[in-house]
Structure formats: C-alpha cells, structure tokens
Specification:
Order of helices and strands of chain B: HEEEEEEEEEE
Helix content of chain B: 10-25%
Largest sheet of chain B: 6 strands, antiparallel
Strand content of chain B: 25-35%
CATH architecture of the largest domain in chain B: 3-layer Sandwich
Number of domains of chain B: 2
Number of strands of chain B: 10
Shape of chain C: globular
Number of strands of chain C: 2
CATH architecture of chain C: Up-down Bundle
Order of helices and strands of chain C: HEHHHHHHHHHEHHHHHH
Oligomer: heterotrimer
Distance between the termini of chain C: 61 Å
CATH class of the largest domain in chain B: Mainly Beta
Strand order of the largest sheet of chain B: 1-10-9-4-3-2
Strand content of chain C: under 5%
Chain lengths: 409, 138, 347
C-alpha cells in the first residue's frame, strides 16, 4: 500500500512539470494583453486608461484637448477598467454624454458650460429653456386646438423647466404628459411627435444616439464638437420629413434629392438664393438657436433675424458695430471657429438685439462681406437702401421679400 | 451550615472575581465596538417649486427614494423603500415591485404581495410660503 | 534521518485507513491548503486594496487590471474562497455520513462547524469589500436582517457595520472584520481543530479489532501524499483562476440616489446566501432570515448530542446503520439548502 519513494519522486517530477506549464500559461496570458496606455488629464488629475483602446478617435475639438479633459470628465465610465463591458458600464448618456438628462454632469460646472449669465457661459440653462428643447409652442398649439387649454400660452415642455428670472413672463413649464390627456389626438401627438427635440429621449438606434442635447447640433462627425455647423446638421432634424396633422403622424422622407434646393424643406416653400447657399448658422444667431436663457412661448417669439438684419430697408442701412472692446464676445466666437481674422477696429453687422454677426464685415465701398461659418466661402452683398427695391419699410417679413426674390421650386 | 475551608473560600472568591472581570472586559469590548460614529444622514429633501409637479403627476424622486403624487387632495410623498428589508422599489404597471424578495405594492402603497407586511411609508411634506416642496424622511 | 518540521506536524505512523481518499475525500486537507492560499493571496491584495468608500472599488480595479498578475492573484483568492465553502461542506457531510462526530470527537465537530460559519462570514465580508454596485442590496438586506432581531438587533447591527445606512457606510467595519475580526478566530480555531484531530486519535476509523486492514503508513508517506494532493489542487486552482475571472462591477457612486439606481440592477445575493434570499421571499424576515437559518445551524450542531451514539465498530465507515437518523437529518438539510439555492437561481 505504501507508495515507493521512487514512484513518489517520479510522480512529483511529472507534477512539477505540470505546475511549471500552468504557471507559464499564466505568465503568457498576462503578457498577451496590450500594455495599458495611461492618460492623466490635467483637469482631473485622475489617471484613465480609455486610450488603450480608443487611441484612434479624433480630438473632439480644439477647445477640449484630450490632454486636458481626458475622456472620463465628459463620458463617465470606469476609468481604470480594461474590460470593455466594465469600462463602458457607467458611461453617462451612453454614446451621448451631452444628452440633456446628464448634461449638467458632463458639460456643466462653473468652469464650463453652466457658468453664470454675466459672462455668457450659461449654455445649459439657455438650451434647456430654449424652444428647441421644450417644444413648448407646438405642445400648446395642439392642446389649444383640441380644447385642452384655453389659449396659446405655453404651459408644458418636453421636460419640466423653471426660470425664476425670466423676462418673458413664463417662469416654468411642466413636463407634458400625453398619457393622461383626454383627447386621442393629443395622445397620438405625444406618441409620434415628441421624439426629436433636444430634451426628448432619443429614439432607438445608433443613428439617433447623438440627436439630442448639445451633440444634436455641435457633433457633426464622429467624436467632433464644432461651432462650424453646416446646414446638413440642421437638416438632420429640420428636413427629415413632414407631419400629417389629420393622422397626427410623422412621415419620414425617403427620397434622395440631388441639389440643395430640391433637398430643401417642405415642397411648397420658397427660398431666396442666400437661403439655399448659406448655412443656417451664418444668419441665425446663438440666442435664436440655443435660446437666450428665458422660457419662450413658441418659435416665433425667439426667432427674429430677417432679411433686413443684413440688408436693411429702403430707409435704413443694417446695423453695424465697430469692435473697440478686446473682450467683445465677437472675438470669442471668431476664435472658436476661426474662419475670419477679426481685428480690433473692424466694423461688423449686428442684429436688432445687438448680437454680433461676427462673420460679416463692412467693406470700404459700403458693401458687405460674409464668410461662411462652415464653408469658409466669401460672399459679398449690398444694402437695400439705394437699390431699385420698392418694398415698404414696415413690411419686412420674409414672405414680402420672397415675392420678388424667391426661386420657385 | 457546612464550614468551608479558608482555601476553598479564597478559590471561590478568586474565581468569582475572575469571571466578573471577564464579564466586565467583554461588556467593555462590546460597548467599544457598538459605537456608531455620527454619520450625517440626510432626512430633509428640497424638491423645488411645487409648480413643476402638475395635478395628476407622479414623479419619482430617486435621491430619497420616493414618489411625489399630486392629486386633487394635494401632494403626497410615498416612500419607495421596501418595508421588508429596505431595497428600493421599481415601478411597474400595477404599482411597485421589490427586486430583492418579490414584495409588491399597489400604486397607493398597500401590500399586494408578500413578504412585506407593512404598507409603504407616507413621508411628511411641507410646502413653504414660496411654494417650495420639502419632504422629510424622519 | 531526523524528521523535518513538516514531518513533525504528523504522527510517526497512522492507520492506512485514515489516509484513504475514498474515506476522507481529502476535504479537510484541501480546506487547510485553500486557507493557506487565501492567507497569502489576501495579504498580497492588501498591498493595493484601499478600504475607503471612494477608493475601494477603484483599488479592486487597479488590482484586477493593472497590477502585474493582480487579476490572477485576485482570481486565486476568489476561487479558493468559493471552493473552500464547497470542500468544507463536503467535509461536514463526510463527518456526519461516516459517524465520525461521535464521542470523543463531539467537541471537535463543534469547532469544525464554527470554522464553517466563519468561512461563510469571511466569504460574505470579502464579497462586500468589492464595494461596487452589485454588493449594495446584499449588504443592505443582510444588515437590515440583523436589525429584525428583537431587543439586540440594533446593537448587533452597529457591531457589524458601525451604524448608519449600509452602502454609504460600513466598509471600514467589513474590512476589519474580514482582515482581522474573523481571520484571527479562524486561524486559532483552525489550529485548535487540527490539534484536536490528533488528540482525539486521528481521523475517525473503526477500532483496531473492527478493521479489515490493520496496515499503517509512516509520516513520510503521509507527507508525500499531502504534497502530491497540494500540487494537484494547486494546479487546478491556477488553471481555473487564469481562465475564469472573479466577478467585478462598476464602482458605487457615493451619492445615495446613484447607489440605489445602480444597485437595482442586481438584487441577487451571493451564491452561498441564495437559499436564505429565497426563504426571505416567503414572509417575516426575522423568522425566515434569522430563526430558520440559525435553527438549521443549531440542529446540525446538536447532531452528536441528540441522536443515539453510533456503534464503535461503525465509526469511520460510510453510512452505517447505527446513525441513520443523523444521516437523514443532514441529508434533508443539505437537500433543502440545495433546492432553495436552485429555486432562487431560477427566479
């Protein structure tokens, strides 16, 4: 029954060999993995290892260098994990950390985009109260139409928002809850029409993952944030199809138009040349698009840029401003999207509310120049004053201009 | 009465003293270990303006966790902590379900399925003069 | 040749029966070996583990992903702990099914049972030390369960986690219990248990006159077999640990809302407490979570004291007639625990 010492030593020899093999296996296994690549962003000082796998991503923008911000300060996630599932499991907003449900953690903070109103860095407050985010006008329109509210005053938004210091008289919007609505059309509207605004829950699918929050406008390509936003980015939502008010459904476009004019908007609309040559952001200002920090009743009460903003009327030249303050916001905006080199002493156009059209310039001969924010193209244009135009100065909405200047589709 | 020898008496007393000392030491150890350092447990939650919660709304407040209900009769805050062993309830079609031990409650907080016995706690609410809602968990 | 220290830990000769694998299943020896591995790997982990709520899960991730072989060491620690519970249970079953608990080994049976309970508590506290989103509900329900004990519940709750609400506090206590408060007793009781095995006449076998085989083996032979067994178990552990990683989950955010949100994704107890979790679904937590589990523990503990003493010739033989009642009791208890575990896992 005794094991012979020689048998034992033979067995021990075999088993030692096995042990060496298994330990070598462990060693080989650990050397197989690529070496983790650390990154310690100066902002957080906390080392993260995301670029071990994500080294090929382009820098998100010149204002957010990865050495400073890293990945985790915006995206969240487990900064130390080298297992993809664990590393990604705690990411904010999935593929879109700027989704408005998490934006305050991702993009906010007094050093970032929820700073004070005074230095004009209250971007998140502006966006969450803007009509692009609340959809307040459409909701009140529907509720009024189907008898659920007595007038067209906005009471509801896609999400609840408050603004105690509002200048519009609307201090808060309640979250619109179509489920409890008593009219089937309102319920249908709730099901069909609340998916594509900035504060909405994004629709299912990779294609819609970045169609909410800041990314909806500012992320034009994979992992990019920019203020050079081309019309195609706006079209992703504003030209996606049309709605049918009788059935309360949205009909997605299926056609593939070849020219920009053909591709544009509703079939009945009319467009002047600048409307289908320039990009939307060349004329429409930050406060129109991103909101001005106040809750507005509907789109019409915030959108104000008209043809006359740049062209003036028969009576008046467009407003201009000579840049004398080196801290003028125009310089900041031009710095963020350097298509034009603004200098102190330059004269630019400004809107009726005084917002700078920083990509314009008054030329010495009295004409104007605009540089496309996304295209970097130069355009020159003339004031109405002194031209053959006969339009009355008090009838300046675009449809009056379209009567002569529009191209029919 | 039987006489006990001096030695037995000493031995008995000594043992008694030792047992007592052991008891005291154990008691001291247990008291030492049972101290709870004061951890500031938040019991008051400011939910902001009452206008954010329209009539008929049921809003989940995950940080308490509780459900704020605005009914005709006014505001009620229903605790979403399971009365069984303290897990957080998840809303479903009929009310709330506990992920830990299958307890279920209807939307008013009454038990519809064990093991929980007690209905959900209704938290104390205060509405301040400037229409701010405050919820108290203790 | 004078025997070495390791040889001296063994008696000069033992009956060959005591060292047969089919008799002992090797469970006790494997448990000792696993505890040694747990001690060594645990100390290694302590070089990197940081027992603060903010850092704990991150330091576990550092161990797992960045320390060279850290993941492997952690897997070894994890798998040793899980297997320890299984071999301890097998050891307990063997002792009952071979009537080995009988006098004079009754006291050592209790020591062994205490070791088993300590192992479970060590496994639970070790699991909590991960301090990630998966551990919150088990810690919360486990400690709230303690609170349900009448009169002394709150006191024991403070003893366990130092008061406050589990998940936001309690890590330091769990750490100290794991590293020291439970480990020190398990070492002392473990040595005592081994000492009593020898003092009580070695592993239980029938008395010499009832044995079929009266051969004896030397301590040299015994040590050889132990060495071979250690190598085999060690190699198996290494293979397991290098291929199946120990569970890990995202770090717990320290804000209560975030903790609750994350925790709700995983409400499952660790596997060795699934049977209790299943019973807790049935009713009063004190009855189903405290009284019944402790009742079962006490029932198992008093097996040597309440059932008829097995015949001397039956001691150390498998399933002898004379301790049928003990076998049935133990068998039923194991069956119930296994069924409850399967039931909980199926839900």
């Amino acid at each position: 029954m005794q094991t012979k010492p020689s048998t034992f030593h033979f067995l021990l020899f075999i088993i030692s060999g096995l042990l060496l093999v298994t330990l070598s296996l462990v060693w080989w296994n650990s050397s197989r993995h690529p070496a983790p690549i650390p990154l310690t962003p100066t902002l957080s000082g906390e080392t993260e290892y995301c670029i071990t796998c994500h080294a090929d991503l382009p820098e998100i923008s010149a204002s957010h260098p990865v050495e400073t911000f890293g990945c985790v300060s915006c995206h969240g996630g487990e900064r130390l994990a080298l297992n993809a599932d664990l590393a990604h499991s705690a990411m904010r907003g999935g593929a879109n950390p700027s989704d408005l449900s998490v934006v305050e953690t991702s993009c906010g903070g007094s050093n970032c985009h929820s700073g004070s109103e005074a230095d004009d860095r209250h971007h998140i407050q502006r966006v969450t109260t803007s009509v692009q985010s609340t959809y307040a006008g459409a909701i009140s329109n529907i509720l009024f139409t189907f008898g659920a509210q007595p007038d067209l005053t906005a009471r509801f938004g896609i999400a609840a928002v408050t603004d105690e210091n509002t200048k519009t008289g609307i201090t808060s919007l309640q979250a619109f809850d179509p489920v409890s609505a008593n009219h089937p059309s309102i319920q249908k509207f709730g099901e069909e029409c609340l998916t594509c605004h900035l504060h909405a829950e994004p629709r299912e699918g990779e294609a819609f993952a970045r169609e909410t929050g800041c990314a909806a406008c500012h992320s034009t390509e994979t992992h990019t944030l920019t203020t050079a936003i081309s019309y195609t980015q706006c079209n992703a939502c504003h030209n996606r199809g049309n709605y049918d008010l009788r059935t309360m459904t949205f009909i997605e476009r299926t056609d593939h138009a070849t020219t920009r004019l053909q591709d544009y908007y509703q079939p009945i609309a009319q467009f002047t040349q600048c409307e289908y040559t320039l990009d939307c952001v060349d004329c429409h200002t930050r406060s129109e698009v991103m909101g001005d920090g106040d809750i507005h009743n509907d789109q019409a009460s915030i959108e104000y840029v008209q043809c006359k903003t740049c062209h003036g009327t028969l009576d008046e030249l467009p407003r201009t401003k000579k840049l004398t303050d080196p801290n003028d916001i125009a310089f900041t905006l031009a710095f963020l999207n350097p298509v034009v080199e603004l200098k102190l002493g330059d004269t630019i156009l400004v809107t009726e509310k005084g917002e700078p059209l920083w990509n314009t310039r008054v030329l010495p001969d009295g004409t104007y120049e605009m540089i496309g924010k996304a295209t970097k193209q130069y355009f020159t244009f003339n004031p109405v004053m002194g031209s053959a135009c006969e339009q009355k100065p008090d009838e300046q909405e675009s449809h009056y201009c379209h009567e002569c200047h529009a191209v029919e589709k | 009465m039987t006489q006990i020898s001096r030695r037995d008496f000493l031995k008995l007393t000594r043992n008694g003293i030792l047992y007592l000392s052991g008891l005291l030491a154990t008691g001291g150890l247990l008291r030492f270990l049972s101290y709870a350092p004061t951890a500031e447990q938040k019991t008051e939650f400011d939910l902001g303006s009452a206008d954010q919660y329209p009539l008929g709304s049921r809003t989940s407040i995950p940080e308490i966790p509780a459900l704020l209900i605005h009914a005709e009769s006014g505001f009620t805050a229903l605790s979403l902590t399971c009365t069984h062993l303290g897990c957080t309830l998840e809303p479903n079609e009929t009310g709330f379900a506990c992920p830990c031990h299958n307890s279920a409650f209807d939307s008013d907080g009454n038990v519809t399925h064990g093991p929980a016995v007690k209905p959900l706690q209704v938290l104390r609410i205060e509405i301040t003069d400037d229409r701010n809602i405050k919820v108290f968990t203790a | 040749m004078r025997p070495s220290f390791f040889h001296h830990l063994h008696p000069p000769t033992i009956p060959a029966d005591q060292a047969r694998w089919r008799h002992t299943l090797g469970a006790g020896g494997t448990a000792v070996f696993l505890m040694l591995i747990l001690g060594v790997t645990g100390i290694l982990e302590m070089f990197y583990y940081i027992p603060t709520p903010e850092e704990a899960a991150l330091s576990v991730q550092t161990i797992t992903y960045h320390v060279p072989f850290g993941g492997f060491i952690r897997n070894l620690h994890y798998w040793s702990a899980q297997i320890l519970l299984i071999v301890s249970a097998i050891h307990l079953l063997r002792v009952v099914f071979t009537a080995a608990y009988s006098h004079p080994r009754r006291f050592n049976y209790l020591l062994g049972l205490a070791l088993f309970v300590l192992s479970i508590l060590l496994d639970f506290t070790g699991y909590i030390l991960r301090w990630d989103v998966d551990i919150c509900y088990p810690l919360l329900t486990g400690t709230n369960l303690i609170k349900t004990i009448p009169f002394i519940g709150d006191f024991f709750h403070r003893l366990a986690i130092g008061g406050g609400e589990a998940c936001s506090t309690g890590l330091l206590r769990m750490y100290v219990w794991h590293i020291f408060g439970l480990t020190l007793p398990i070492i002392i009781l473990g040595i005592w248990h081994a000492f009593r095995v020898r003092r009580d006449g070695g592993i239980a076998v029938p008395p010499p006159q009832a044995r079929t085989d009266n051969a004896r083996i030397s301590r040299n032979e015994l040590v050889r077999r132990e060495v071979l067994a250690m190598f085999i178990v060690g190699i198996a552990l290494i293979l397991l640990s290098s291929s199946v990683p120990a569970p890990i989950a995202p770090a717990m955010d320290s804000t209560p809302a975030a903790i609750r949100e994350a925790a709700s994704q995983s409400a499952k107890a660790p596997w060795f407490f699934l049977w209790v979790q299943q019973m807790l679904k049935w009713g009063d937590p004190f009855i189903f979570g405290i009284v019944i589990p402790f009742g079962i523990l006490i029932l198992v503990a008093i097996i040597p004291y309440i059932f008829p003493k097995p015949a001397d010739s039956d001691i150390g033989t498998w399933f002898p007639k004379s301790n049928r009642l003990a076998q049935i009791t133990m068998g039923l208890v194991s069956l119930i625990v296994i069924l409850l575990t399967l039931l909980a896992n199926a839900n």
